[in-house]
């Protein structure tokens, strides 16, 4: 992997890690599910008008949009709105990796290797430690919601694998067309039109302007720039070389939340975070293929 691509991979991790701070700012103004609907609606409109159809089956696009888009961000935004620390959310969401491995084995009959199982066991142990710590502070529900967000992301990953899009960026952008309607409907039921209207009519306040800045970052930097660079890197390099750089996302998220939001994880949470990252890394690595023996002519 060229040095330029390594630097780009680190840049994407930084952009995605800071994305959680932008979400935090957005939720200061908008109800969580309504914020998710707006996030995708802003991307969906220009996508329909200007981006070519990704040439995949509609059911796979719907599966990706409902899993990665609707489920993940509805659960994540509600979790962060109900007390999930920003940095910790960036970490727990990485549970999508071991979830994807397990769901791939169940639904796609993919083989799970011993080192993947060991990595999953490590990640689960770290998550259990964090959940135990959170339960002691009466904050277990946000943790569970974030894990459900990770599980939804994993289901979305299965749809991506089945779709096998020729242009992953077009596929990702068209996925944004799926979540707005179900998320707007959920918001109407759960949050009510009064909360939606109030969040829109108070955008001129300092909190509203900060939320607009956060929403702009999530859409343009986190989604368009970040996903565009990541897709380019995945095209130019083996997936197994690029994917581990995503483990820098929670490192950036935790560090930025500590520096900018004053979030201070306990020593147990910090140690468990290291265990989770190590487990995800171990579970995502693929063993090198053994070279086939050369045939020697008699």
TrEMBL record:
Annotated localization: Membrane
Transmembrane segments: 7-27, 33-54, 61-80, 86-108, 115-133, 139-159, 171-189, 209-230, 242-261, 267-285
Annotated EamA domain residues: 7-130, 143-282
Domain of life: Bacteria
Coiled coil: none
Alphabetical keyword list: Membrane, Transmembrane, Transmembrane helix
InterPro entries: AA-Vitamin_Transporters (IPR050638), EamA_dom (IPR000620), EmrE-like (IPR037185)
Membrane topology label: Multi-pass membrane protein
Gene3D superfamilies reported for this sequence: 1.10.3730.20
GO cellular component, one term: membrane
Family: Belongs to the EamA transporter family.
Protein name: Membrane protein
Upper classification of the organism: Bacteria, Bacillati, Actinomycetota, Actinomycetes, Pseudonocardiales
């Amino acid at each position: 992997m060229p040095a330029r691509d390594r630097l780009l991979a680190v840049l994407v991790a930084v952009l995605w890690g800071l994305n959680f701070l932008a979400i935090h700012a957005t939720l200061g103004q908008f109800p969580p599910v309504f914020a998710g609907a707006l996030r995708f609606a802003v991307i969906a409109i220009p996508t329909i008008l200007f981006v070519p159809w990704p040439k995949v089956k509609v059911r796979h696009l719907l599966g990706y949009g409902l899993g990665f888009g609707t489920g993940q961000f509805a659960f994540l935004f509600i979790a962060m709105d109900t007390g999930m620390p920003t940095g910790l959310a960036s970490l727990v969401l990485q549970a999508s990796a071991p979830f994807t491995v397990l769901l791939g084995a169940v639904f796609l009959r993919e083989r799970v290797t011993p080192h993947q199982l060991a990595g999953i066991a490590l990640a689960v142990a770290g998550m259990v430690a964090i959940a135990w710590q959170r339960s002691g502070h009466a904050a277990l529900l946000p943790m569970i919601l974030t894990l459900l967000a990770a599980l939804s992301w994993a289901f979305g990953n299965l749809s991506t694998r089945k779709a096998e899009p020729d242009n992953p960026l077009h596929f990702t952008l068209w996925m944004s067309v799926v979540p707005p309607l179900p998320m707007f409907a959920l918001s109407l039921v759960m949050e009510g039109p009064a909360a939606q209207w109030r969040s829109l009519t108070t955008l001129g306040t300092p909190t509203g302007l900060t939320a607009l800045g956060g929403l702009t970052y999530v859409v343009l930097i986190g989604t368009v720039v970040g996903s565009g660079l990541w897709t380019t890197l995945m095209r130019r390099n083996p997936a197994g070389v690029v994917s581990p750089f995503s483990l820098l996302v929670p490192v950036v998220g935790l560090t930025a939340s500590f520096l900018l939001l004053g979030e201070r994880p306990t020593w147990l949470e910090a140690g468990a975070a290291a265990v989770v990252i190590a487990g995800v890394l171990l579970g995502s690595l693929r063993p090198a293929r053994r070279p086939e023996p050369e045939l020697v002519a008699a």
